[in-house]
């Protein structure tokens, strides 16, 4: 019988350090989350390094790792030891010249339940991800695990209702969004509140429109590794929302934290019975959604 209730966690961290130290730190925090009862645990986007996409620099490709190497070996062993599911976002070297922004979904026995490659790749000031990442080619996926059905999207995917919908239609009970998003310090006073509010609103909307739980795991801290730049102030504020968009847990802007909430599948079904958005979708009228623009 599937679990009717299980606990999920997102871990909010400062990851402005070298890979070895970030790995040790994340292992420790995953242990803490499991000790608090979490059964499915997500780390933030690109956990193993500082956010290097602030510049276009070929030297940063050295931060990437092949599939099933350092990150997988470490977190596979940890998942098996703790009996938990772990979402591990990492910089994937697929082959020479092809790199992805990816995430393992590692099951409770240490096996790979699934792999997701970020589908939407941004190119904004100091978020120069198109230089590094080839768009994902695995599509939007719901991954069955021994704890529940997990959908994993990554950061910029947060802004796309199509990504959430296509993942939820495959049966996802939770949409996890490992994230690295923050303010340009010089813009924060003028635009910061609206930027952060939009980020939360769009994901809460995904929860409501799809009747799913949503969990976003962001990083914190000012990462100012480039000379003569203001860097990025990651805004934290990781959160878990329920299927009506209700906030079940929310982190601060500036502290390392673990958030835990319970997924209740009976509640989810009740919400979908009362708000039957899936039933009433006019799929016969949606053909134009695959066009770039409707001219």
Automatic annotation (TrEMBL):
This is Carbon-nitrogen hydrolase. It comes from Flavobacterium petrolei. One of its GO terms (molecular function) is N-carbamoylputrescine amidase activity. SUPFAM superfamilies: Carbon-nitrogen hydrolase. Residues 6-265 form the CN hydrolase domain. GO terms for biological process: putrescine biosynthetic process from arginine. It comes from the Bacteria. Keywords: Hydrolase.
